[in-house]
Design goal:
- The chain is of the alpha+beta class.
- Helices cover 27% and strands 21% of the residues.
- It has a six-stranded mixed sheet, sandwiched between helices.
- A hairpin with a 2-residue loop joins strand 13 and strand 14.
- It is elongated and about 90 Å long.
- The N and C termini lie far apart (77 Å).
Length: 623
């Protein structure tokens, strides 16, 4: 019965396999016009649904590892579990290679004992020799590192880096499926969320390798074997820091195989042991994960679980223990979770509270006082028909990239905060993030000269995010190929175009709506004229020769493209210039995308508004 179910599910997955279309941007040489779109647009509505949560197995951990690293029996949990006269032993998990590990000899548990290794397998048996407990536990054994290496503490001049990434999450997906996390990042951590951050390649490697090594990884230049890559976390450890590298799913791992562990703490043996201690069968698990992602719960527990806990949460807790164990020591902590969104992006919402709580813990425990936090991805979903919608196709080129800086850094070096803010609306890539990480490594915080083109008129392809990235940057200059360039093209429209005039009225109404709460202080805004108007559009052409697989559905698949305008208009009083992007579907279906921007100086026109009320200040003409 189970085999039949798996077979039918697999056939269903093939039948409904997304149609993968490849498009090339025909305008990679011009200054980038970043796409702006409605993340709740009706064209992608059927791609999103609320994900039903499933529990893990219902049993208690009867062992835990204390903050000091001692494996300890929880007698209360033993009693609550109804166990009596149990005998337990544990075995260390020892790495032999990327795909092999061995267990140590069994060690009887008699009393709390320090774990001089990171991972152990614990088993307990009752007096009938029936196994009643079978689980994995972890420590972060810092003693060998502390005893053999001169470590340095974090400070403003020796900042740590805490990088937490998710595979296949575009910024659009993050905004819709991780709302609690994104809200906390913005409101509580003051995160910079980069709207023009663009992928560099198809899969994870050509996107993550530039971030961690700075190397061009688009296939045009040779790249060393994984074990020889110049990872920046090694530079941090060379300067007295500690490091950790986490990936959760070896089958699709970005970096493999490492001949030796790449960092001081590396949980690949733990990941391997999960499959051996509680064997999972990939085809079956993926079939159940497919069903779970479509809210068809044929199992009582989630396909994401290892025993009584989700696999990603186990690795997240190991990540937290690393950060807690080394407390104030400088560190580079890299965690990359593949499983959550790699195949079924709606499932990432199941981790929203867990990720939010991780960031909340980082803030409340002071871990971000001397650390830069990155929450990021590599690209949008690769296996979903959302990429064959007008909005989905473009948004999939724009992976999540959000960065939190220590408050003290922004206060001491205000130009960094200013440039970061500007760069959230510029064309950026992971090459720029790498240079920022180098600046952090060497405490290169002083203000730098304005970035200028070289003798050939080209801007550099890598510019630290701590410097202002020119708005004139093109995809060609940033080494973004035509397949991954998200930038729009534009065509000038006559100022008398009726669609433009209709949209201008909507923009004015929007401004007056924003001013409604302060109407007693601010004059009503009135339309005067169109300053300029352009049609903006993704100038992309389908390339059938590059599409990955034949699909009968592909011949019948059509993509609806919206009409979008970039409009600059003049209003009175105050001779104000405002600019907005508009999604136009008809006279009665006009939607403003993003914010309405003030594009000329307003001097003291809004002097009656408090300086903190920035939104009202740019719109208000005091009366």
């Amino acid at each position: 019965m189970l085999v039949t179910l798996v077979g039918l599910t697999y056939i269903n997955m093939l039948i409904y396999m997304p149609v993968f279309q490849v498009f090339r941007n025909r305008n990679v040489h011009s200054p980038c016009i970043l796409p702006v779109f409605d993340i709740y647009d009706k064209s992608i509505a059927d791609q999103f649904w609320s994900q039903q949560s499933l529990p893990c197995e219902d049993w208690l951990d009867i062992f835990y590892v204390t903050p000091s690293g001692k494996l300890t029996l929880n007698h209360t949990a033993v009693q609550l579990s109804g166990f009596h006269d149990i005998k337990c032993h544990y075995r260390y998990i020892i790495r032999k290679s990327e795909t092999k590990f061995v267990f140590s000899e069994k060690i009887d548990y008699n009393e709390p004992k320090y774990l001089d290794g990171d991972f152990v397998h614990v088993e307990c048996f009752d007096n009938q020799k029936k196994r009643v407990y079978n689980n994995l536990h972890f420590n972060v054994d810092a003693k060998p590192i502390i005893n053999s290496k001169k470590l340095v503490n974090e400070s403003l001049e020796r900042l740590s880096v805490i990088a937490f990434g998710l595979d296949s999450v575009s910024r659009l997906i993050a905004e819709r499926k991780l709302p609690k996390t994104m809200k906390y990042l913005r409101q509580n951590l003051g995160a910079y969320v980069f709207t023009g951050h663009t992928r560099l390649g198809d899969s994870s490697f050509p996107n993550l390798n530039p971030l961690l090594t700075g190397l061009i990884s688009d296939g045009t230049q040779p790249v060393p074997p994984v074990s020889d890559l110049p990872f920046i976390f090694k530079n941090f450890s060379d300067q007295g820091g500690v490091n950790i590298f986490i990936e959760d799913w070896y089958k699709v791992a970005t970096f493999k195989p490492f001949l030796d562990p790449p960092t001081m703490h590396y949980p690949q043996p733990l990941v391997q042991a999960m499959d051996q201690v509680r064997p999972s069968y990939l085809a079956i698990d993926k079939s159940f994960q497919f069903l779970q992602s479509h809210n068809i719960p044929l199992r009582k527990v989630s396909a994401l679980c290892f025993g009584n806990e989700k696999r990603y949460k186990i690795l997240m807790n190991y990540y937290k223990r690393f950060l807690e164990t080394y407390k104030y020591t400088r560190k580079f902590a890299f965690s990359w979770i593949n499983e959550l969104a790699h195949d079924f992006f709606n499932m990432v919402e199941l981790a929203d509270e867990d990720i939010r709580d991780l960031f909340k813990w980082l803030k409340e425990s002071g871990k971000l006082d001397n650390a830069v936090l990155l929450f990021f991805s590599d690209h949008g979903p690769r296996y979903s028909e959302i990429q064959n919608t007008d909005i989905g196709r473009v948004s999939n080129l724009l992976p999540l990239m959000s960065i939190v800086l220590p408050k003290r850094l922004s206060e001491k070096y205000p130009h960094i905060a200013r440039n970061m803010k500007l760069n959230t609306e510029r064309l950026t890539t992971n090459h720029d993030v790498f240079l920022m990480l180098k600046d952090i490594l060497y405490a290169n915080y002083d203000e730098q000269p304005v970035v200028k083109p070289n003798k050939e008129g080209m801007l550099p392809y890598e510019i630290s995010l701590f410097r202002e990235i020119p708005s004139s940057r093109s995809c060609e200059e940033a080494r973004i190929s035509d397949v991954f360039c998200p930038c729009y093209s534009s065509a000038r429209l006559p100022n008398t175009d009726q669609r433009v005039l209709q949209s201008a009225r909507v923009i004015v109404d929007k401004i007056n709506g924003v001013l409604a709460p302060v109407r007693s202080k601010c004059a009503s805004v009135e339309y005067v004229s169109i300053h300029h108007a352009s049609l903006i559009f993704p100038d992309m052409q389908r390339d059938l020769s590059q599409e990955r697989a034949f699909s009968l559905r592909g011949y019948f698949w059509t993509v609806e493209s919206a009409t979008r305008f970039l409009i600059s208009l003049r209003t009175k009083p105050g001779d104000a210039l405002f600019e907005a992007r508009v999604d136009y579907r008809g006279p009665n279906d006009i939607k403003i995308l993003g914010n309405v921007l003030r594009t000329n100086a307003y001097g003291n026109q809004s002097s009656c508004m408090d300086h903190k009320d920035r939104t009202w200040r740019i719109y208000c003409y005091c009366i």
